Amino acid sequence: MLLNIDLPPEAPPPSAAPDPAASPRREGRGDAPPAEPAEPAEQRSSAAPRPPLVGMPVLALIRPLAVLALLAMVLGRMLAPAMVGLAVGIERTAHAVELAGAGASQLFAIGAIVMAMALISAVVRSRVPYALRIAAIVAGSFVILVVLHATVQRVPDLSAALIGVSAAILALGSAWEALRVPFMRPVAAALGLVGASALVRLTGVLLAVWANERGSKALAGATSSVATAAFALDALAVLTATVALGAGRDARSRGAEQPRPGPRLVSPLSLAALAAALLATRAALAGAAEDASMVETLFRRALDRLLTRPAPVVPLSMQVFVAALSVAVVALALIAPPRLPALGGALALLLVARSAPEVPLGALSLVIAALCVALASRDERGFWASVLATERERAPSALPGAGNRTPPGPTGGASG
């Protein structure tokens, strides 16, 4: 199906062809009415090729999909395992949370597969480099097949490692392509760091397996070093995503005549994320004590599910803080009304997948985030049309004439 989307139509539409009988009549009249030549011009413009996302608002669906991903992560991956045996008398509540997490995971899996197919189709029809198009087809299709296989039986370890590597390589390619667009750089940098962290961490997993099989202390020491490097890249990706929270809201506030030199490092959203992460870290660290409350123990167990393996050689408090900050950034990117909703959804998806790129749904989340970033960096008309449609939905009672104002594209032109 994906190989036929670039085929041209078999024949031009009849309405776009010139009327041979109309030419003599216009020459004989001398004074042709101005409205007569307008009709074939409109027909020709309607038959002209359009950007791939103008008629298909696929980018507008990234944010709702990211909401499902957040629910699946919080309910299914964090809370459901953390509530098992937490206290007496909460078995029904724990079972209800487990069912809710499973339902959110299934809905996210279905929506993510459909979204990935649509994004692959749009990327192939867009103006991204051919190498990135081929990578989108190969990596995206492979990850989709493995996700479909995971619904039937357990994914083999080799397949899990391969989808993690495929998603990470696609993320690096999309990030490199998107770095040329100024307003895309914070999100593109976070995407590239997540992809690099995934590759380094999967290398550490491979070294850990070899060290366990051979009983080599040298390989075990190399595993710790590689895991620490992966954690450093992961922490830098989360901090970059925190900065991108404030950068995305100011992307449209500046005009083409007054470009901003760079995103603000501190914004209300980034401060809120840091404060929430500090409070969650404090509660999680207190949950290790014997006299800890049920809420503190719940925070400790839930955030432990987001810690990466192999364990890096860094303090546990730093690992818990990075995990809590990633959840806070995901929530704020979806709850706060961002100026660029598609980028907010992509930012949330890449942080959801950051600690588990070898998990089928994690790899699929990273693929969707990478394809979204690649499309946003190349298809300016479709991207800004999606942004403008969202702005009109958010502000139906705007000032007169505000709805007709088009936002500037990455190159300073109108969105068309």
Which oligomeric form is depicted?
A: single chain
Structural class: mainly alpha
N-to-C SSE series? HHHHHHHHHHHHHH
User: How many domains make up the coordinates?
Assistant: 1
> Could you name the ranges where pLDDT drops below 50 across 5 or more consecutive residues?
1-30, 35-56, 250-261, 397-416
Give the biggest beta sheet. none
How many H/I helical runs? 14
How would the global form be characterised?
globular
Give me the Rg, rounded: 25 Å
Helices and strands, with pairings:
Elements: H1 22-29, H2 38-47, H3 62-82, H4 91-125, H5 130-150, H6 157-178, H7 185-214, H8 217-249, H9 268-286, H10 294-304, H11 316-335, H12 341-352, H13 360-378, H14 380-394
Helix pairs in contact: 3-4, 3-10, 3-11, 3-12, 4-5, 4-13, 5-6, 5-13, 6-7, 6-13, 7-8, 7-12, 7-13, 8-9, 8-11, 8-12, 9-10, 9-11, 11-12, 12-13
Explain this structure.
The protein is mainly alpha-helical and 416 residues long. The protein has one domain (57-252, 262-393). 66% of the residues lie in helices and 0% in strands. The protein starts with 21 loop residues before the first helix and ends in a 22-residue tail after the last helix. Residues 1-30, 35-56, 250-261 and 397-416 have low confidence and may be disordered. The chain crosses the membrane at residues 65-90, 102-124, 130-151, 158-176, 188-211, 218-245, 310-336, 356-376. Keywords: Membrane, Transmembrane, Transmembrane helix.
